[in-house]
């Protein structure tokens, strides 16, 4: 029963994040068949982990390492948060009760993401085991890179159910960053 509840929470959360992206910034979710919202103007992307606890830093760093292992983009740590393309953090709680909140800013399309911020909800995630927390962080970083959620393939990092990006995630990231150096 507990597994079914966690699955339901993840599905509801994916829907909530997708809906929240509709109204935030100028990057919008569309009926497009493209597996991405947009991409940064460079494959070298900086990030900053605003979380202060070792526990949450480890979750974020694990997600960063997984996306870097695909060798499509190079995520590099920025010493100053103000210099980062992507900001990763946690909050005690998020208003709508979602596990994760994402924000992309910039025009939709290739080279269109100017900045991203991902926030994990510690209150909701306290009910998850470490593997579940890492899965949510992995999806969050994928979203920050511009990828859309994958509601049909539970082996995808963009489903919130996978522990690492799969071959299709790599293809989608390559498509999003095609022609970008």
TrEMBL record:
Phylogenetic placement of the source organism: Bacteria, Bacillati, Bacillota, Bacilli, Lactobacillales
Domain of life: Bacteria
InterPro entries: MetalloPept_cat_dom_sf (IPR024079)
Identification of the protein by name: Uncharacterized protein
Species this chain originates from: Levilactobacillus tangyuanensis
SUPFAM superfamilies: Metalloproteases ('zincins'), catalytic domain
């Amino acid at each position: 029963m507990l597994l079914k509840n966690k699955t339901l929470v993840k599905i509801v959360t994916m829907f909530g994040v997708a809906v929240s992206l509709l109204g935030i910034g100028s990057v919008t979710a569309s009926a497009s068949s493209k597996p991405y919202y947009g991409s940064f103007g460079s494959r070298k992307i900086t990030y900053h982990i605003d979380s202060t606890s070792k526990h949450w830093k480890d979750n974020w760093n694990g997600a960063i390492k997984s996306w870097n292992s695909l060798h499509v983009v190079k995520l590099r740590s920025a010493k100053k948060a103000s210099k980062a393309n992507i900001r990763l953090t946690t909050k005690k709680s998020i208003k709508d009760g979602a596990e994760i909140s994402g924000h992309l800013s910039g025009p939709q399309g290739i080279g269109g993401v100017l900045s991203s911020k991902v926030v994990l909800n510690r209150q909701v995630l306290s009910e998850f085991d470490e593997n579940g927390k890492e899965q949510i962080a992995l999806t969050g970083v994928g979203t920050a890179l511009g990828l859309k959620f994958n509601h049909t393939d539970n082996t995808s990092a963009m489903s919130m159910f996978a522990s690492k990006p799969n071959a299709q995630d790599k293809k989608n990231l390559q498509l999003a960053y095609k022609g970008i150096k």
